[in-house]
């Protein structure tokens, strides 16, 4: 058996399954047959509140933190100096950020007169999912290396408090209908401090180009509370890998998860749960949900040994970067390739899935088949011990 397989056997299987379910959910919600026909639970909340889709990104950052607790503590216990770890941290950060930018420069389509340099490269969206993961990973690494575990809790709480105060108290001005209007503490979809800062620093390079401000759900300011989501995973990872009995670990995860959900719901009374600006209540609430989800996976897999059902998610979870990058890139290719007057994706949806299952169910069926397709690809990679690591 290869060294890679031995390493997989020594992993926390429940974490791989959790990661696999999360990345499969991400592919599902990102690839409907038609964005005009999507079941509401598979869409993000319009603004305040949450849907199951809003679980996915914080779950992924939480999982990054759990994995860091294992890898960083193992490295530090080897006695090597902290500075020796920074080249690896910087390399991984740059690769993740670069992969995110790469996905943004793949055009959706090639209309007549299209110029890649002026229409895509010069207007590239700089923030994104992988870019946020990269930045969060870097700053979480710095905190782990230079702040004691006890003081990390204070750092996490402090970042949430500072973000809350900034969003509520710092004034900013927006030009509306030719008039400059000053705001403070406003948390509307386009008018808020995070959107204002994105417009100042990233104008023309964000996902949302609004009427008044250009802004992004993975923008600058909201990355601060996202770091706390990863730190929650770090603290969880240290609890899970402790020498406590497994039943105590599972109970602790469940109790902390319940506390997070309740506390986040209470905080929402003062700052609504909101994925787009990664509100403090969203951090705490989704941290609680992630703890509960991990508790279920840990109990079922690591305590009860119920693993047969989890194999597809292990395959997804041990090659999550390959799945995310490959599925995202190929989805763009399907939009760029033309069949008659439609894209390849549009043709498959309209002439195959929609005909067989109807507009709404056909859109969902397209996403499910897309996941199954990638499960086949990753199963081959898994059997051949091919794992994309960065």
Condensed summary:
The protein contains 15 helices and 6 strands. The chain has 390 residues and is mainly alpha-helical.
Q: Keywords for this structure?
A:
single chain; 390 residues; mainly alpha; two-stranded antiparallel ribbon
Low-confidence parts: 1-9
State Rg: 22 Å
Tally of helical segments: 15
Strand pairing plus helix content: what structural class? Answer: mainly alpha
SS elements, strand count: 6
Mean pLDDT: 91
Question: How far apart, in Å, are the first and last alpha carbons?
Answer: 23 Å
Shape: globular
Q: Helix amount, in percent?
A: 55-70%
Provide the β-strand percentage band: under 5%
Strand order of the largest sheet: 1-2
How many strands, what sense, and barrel or not for the largest sheet?
2 strands, antiparallel
Q: H/E order of the elements? A: HHHHHHHEEHEEHHHHHEEHH
Describe the structure.
With 390 residues, this protein is mainly alpha-helical. The chain has a domain at 1-43 and 306-390. The chain has helices spanning 3-9, 13-30, 56-77, 86-105, 116-119, 129-146, 149-169, 193-202, 223-240, 246-267, 280-303, 311-317, 320-336, 344-357, 359-383; strands spanning 172-176, 179-183, 208-209, 214-215, 338-339, 342-343. The strands form 3 sheets. The chain has a two-stranded antiparallel sheet with strand order 1-2. Strands 3-4 form a two-stranded antiparallel sheet. A two-stranded antiparallel ribbon has the order 5-6. It is globular.
């Amino acid at each position: 058996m290869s060294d890679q397989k031995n390493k997989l056997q020594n992993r926390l299987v429940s974490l791989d399954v959790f990661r696999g379910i999360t990345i499969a959910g991400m592919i599902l919600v990102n690839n409907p047959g038609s964005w005009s026909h999507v079941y509401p639970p598979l869409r993000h909340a319009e603004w305040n509140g949450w849907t199951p889709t809003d679980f996915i990104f914080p779950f992924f950052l939480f999982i990054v933190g759990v994995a860091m607790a294992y890898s960083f503590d193992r490295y530090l216990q080897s006695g090597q100096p902290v500075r020796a770890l920074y080249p690896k941290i910087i390399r991984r950060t740059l690769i993740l950020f670069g992969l995110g930018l790469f996905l943004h420069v793949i055009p959706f389509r090639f209309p007549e007169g299209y110029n890649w340099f002026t229409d895509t490269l010069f207007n590239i969206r700089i923030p994104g999912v992988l870019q946020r993961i990269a930045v969060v990973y870097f700053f979480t690494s710095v905190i782990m290396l230079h702040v004691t575990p006890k003081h990390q809790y204070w750092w996490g709480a402090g970042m949430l408090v500072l973000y809350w105060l900034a969003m509520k108290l710092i004034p900013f001005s927006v030009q509306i209908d030719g008039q400059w209007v000053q705001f403070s503490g406003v948390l509307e979809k386009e008018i808020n401090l995070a959107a204002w800062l994105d417009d100042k620093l990233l104008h023309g390079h964000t996902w949302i180009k609004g009427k008044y401000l250009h802004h992004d759900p993975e923008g600058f300011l909201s990355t601060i509370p996202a770091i706390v989501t990863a730190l929650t995973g770090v603290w969880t990872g240290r609890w899970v890998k402790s020498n406590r009995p497994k039943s105590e670990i599972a109970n602790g995860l469940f109790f902390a998860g319940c506390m997070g959900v309740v506390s986040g719901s209470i905080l929402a009374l003062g700052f609504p749960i909101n994925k787009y600006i990664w509100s403090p209540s969203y951090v705490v609430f989704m941290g609680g949900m992630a703890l509960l989800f991990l508790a279920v996976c840990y109990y079922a897999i690591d305590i009860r040994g119920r693993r047969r059902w989890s194999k597809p998610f292990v395959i997804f979870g041990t090659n999550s970067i390959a799945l995310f990058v490959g599925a995202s890139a190929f989805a763009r290719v399907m939009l760029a390739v033309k069949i008659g007057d439609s894209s390849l994706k549009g043709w498959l949806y309209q002439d195959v899935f929609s005909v067989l299952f109807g507009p709404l169910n056909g859109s969902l069926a397209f996403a499910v088949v897309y996941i199954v397709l990638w499960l086949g690809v990753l199963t081959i990679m898994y059997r051949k011990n091919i794992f994309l690591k960065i």
